[in-house]
Design goal:
single chain; alpha+beta; Arc Repressor Mutant, subunit A; Dna Ligase, domain 1; 2 domains; three-stranded mixed β-sheet; two-stranded antiparallel sheet; 5 helices; about 35% helix; binds zinc ion; binds manganese (II) ion
Length: about 140
């Protein structure tokens, strides 16, 4: 018997019918660190599946998100970005090209009781803004 692929496993877990389009979306996201938007994913995958609709991308993303297999990042005001890496981590965001890169390090942040507003804090997500290596040079001239 053929070994099941990771995409098949995920589809089964999500209760989604395994279609070549969904397989391609899951394959594109697997290990992807570029934090693509739905449009980016659609553009990449529809090259191989010209008949695919943006709705298929949205539906698949919504299912993954609902099952905790995908993070939806709202750090880019123009469009939501998606991250298949659901472990706690932080992000660097380029203000120019909107590139998002990962910071895989936990910061030991203590919030004093007086600032917690009674919250039990379970996590944090820090966004660092600036200019990426490619945009830095241009930023000097600003
Ligand atoms: Zn940049
Ligand atoms: Mn990330």
């Amino acid at each position: 018997m053929k070994e099941k692929t990771k995409a098949q496993d995920i589809c089964e877990e999500l209760g989604l019918k395994l279609t070549p389009q969904r397989m391609a979306i899951l394959g594109y996201l697997d290990g992807n660190t570029s934090h693509p938007s739905a449009e980016d994913i659609f553009a990449a995958v529809s090259r191989r599946f010209p008949g695919m609709s943006l709705a298929t991308v949205y539906n698949t993303l919504a299912s993954l998100k609902e099952k905790g297999k995908l993070l939806e990042l709202t750090i880019d005001p123009a469009k939501k970005r998606y991250d298949p890496d659901t472990r706690p981590h932080h992000h660097l965001i380029c203000l120019d090209c909107k590139r998002v890169s990962d910071i895989d390090r936990a910061f030991d942040l203590e919030i004093p009781d007086s600032l917690r507003n009674g919250f039990q804090i379970t996590g944090n997500h820090i966004e660092f803004y600036g200019y990426c290596p490619e945009c830095k040079g241009a930023a000097v001239k600003r």
